[in-house]
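This section describes the prediction task in plain terms. A model, or a person checking by hand, is given the sequence of a single protein chain and must write out its three-dimensional structure as a string of tokens. No templates, partner chains or ligands are provided. The sample shown here is typical of the held-out split.
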Amino acid sequence: MSSRRRAGHPKRSRPRRTTTRASATTRSECDSMGGYDSLLLDHDGVVVDVLDSAPVRQAALDAFAAVGVDAPEDDHVELVAFGPTYDELVSLSEHHGVDHATLWRHRDDNLADTLREAARDGGKQPYPDAGVLAGLEVPTGIVSNNQRRVVEFIAEQYELTEQFAAIQAREPHVDSLERKKPEPVFLESVMEDLGVSEPLYVGDRESDVVAGERAGVDTAFIRREHNADVSLGREPTYEVESLEDVADIVRGTAAAED
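The expected answer:
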């Protein structure tokens, strides 16, 4: 077993959220399955693999070109490609004398096309261990900073739609930047959609850990090839190497490390 609860990081006691949804898992059912009444997962880098950075940067370059900026600074391309904050986007747009909402619309449209093409061509597909999710007895949801239209397309492309009872992800407009992780908005929305209060949330970035902390839920940091050597400044509840490890935790079979 490669998963472990981080030393010195006991499972938190959290205020209970009340719900009237009939589908919500009861506390006794939750206890019998390891203490979690649901499983929430980031999308890219957790359920499906990450795309090579070159086409993502090209989508950003094409967005700049669409608003008349032919030679943007490399750091601005990097920022637009991989996710600025709202304030960062406004600042760099003012620097180039362009409308920030228009630049972001082109970026999101270009990247959505790129990611959907990659999914159709097999360049972006589920990790081999994603199949384990189908065998879990708790509701499963997606919490992603990617665009909802992309997440839903990939789920349909690879017949994963039935595995996820709820999806929260960005809409393709600039205001969504203020809702993305590490803000807990998407996490809390999925919890409300599912009628759950004790999820385990799995992510591959420090922003996922922070979002989990802000939402008051336990987190598992999954190490894949793209983040195997990443050092974290925030401590997750667990570190895992696969979704099989996650499934064991949810089922209550993973041994805690004292």
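For orientation: The first helix runs from residue 27 to 32.
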